[in-house]
Amino acid sequence: MRALVTGGTGFIGSSIVRVLLAAGYTVRALVRPGSDMRNLAGLNIEIAEGDITDPASLQRAVSGCGAVFHAAALYSFWVRDPDLIYRVNVGGTENVLTVAKKAGVTRIVYTSSVAALAVPEGKTPVTEDTPIDPRKIIGDYKRSKYEAEQLALKFARDGLPVVIVNPTFPVGPRDVKPTPTGRTILDFLNRRMPAYMETGMNVVDVEDVAIGHLLALEKGKAGERYILGGVNMTMAELLQTLSEITGIPAPRVRLPYHPILGLSYLNAAWCRMTGCTPRMTPDTIRMSRHYMYYDPGKAIRELGLPQTPPRTALQKAVEWFKANGYVRA
Known about the structure:
single chain; alpha/beta; Rossmann fold; 7-stranded parallel sheet; 3-stranded mixed sheet; about 45% helix; globular
């Protein structure tokens, strides 16, 4: 079977491509003109130039494909034009699903995010069935992923064979941009983290996430959501694990919430005037008040999602960043 992967040059998308190739699929990747192709170098795949915001290019890319993995998204907590997040994450998803429906694609896996699920309260892990209060969603990125997931669920109710997966916080190789989680690892490796804000996250190996996509294609139920996650860790536990891997001392100073939130607004205002990118945004600081804990039990039970230990996943991320010139000597 030929499978189309949107976002194939990205962190999760390039891992999906590799998992599909290993499973014997013919893979076509939708790639925007001028994209960074490092993550796909040397792979025996078809390249279709196009963009999820351009339905005509999507029609060409989907032609002849039996399956579609929609992994393309704008993953950022800072853009100068918030409308862009909605055009890509919501409008782009609607385009992909509409074109796939018209083409008669037999199976679609949509890469949503835990950002589309309920905001965790305390340290109780969120499941796929935890009630969602849209008013508590923080920031444009999370709101766009929530709206896009609601679209996918509507398409599923109308008969489109789409399975939804919700990755947590993946780490591992080929995080070229890097993602916000990868940036935390990099800041630690480059000794740019003298202090930290206490929070929590669910750490998962990006390669487990990619395998989860294939399992969703082969075993998932249309219209169902599956959290592709690993182990819940506090920020202090994450930094201590990185310290054990690298020998770099973990920061011991814990930052207070309200003064840092105020500084984040000043930082954001400065960056809007100067054109720079803030190292912290009000959205990320507000999110840090929540322990982003999730329960991947459904994906483990129903799909067979693998569970690589977080130390192993972090080790792979550290080695890749070092090998690819992201870490100062």
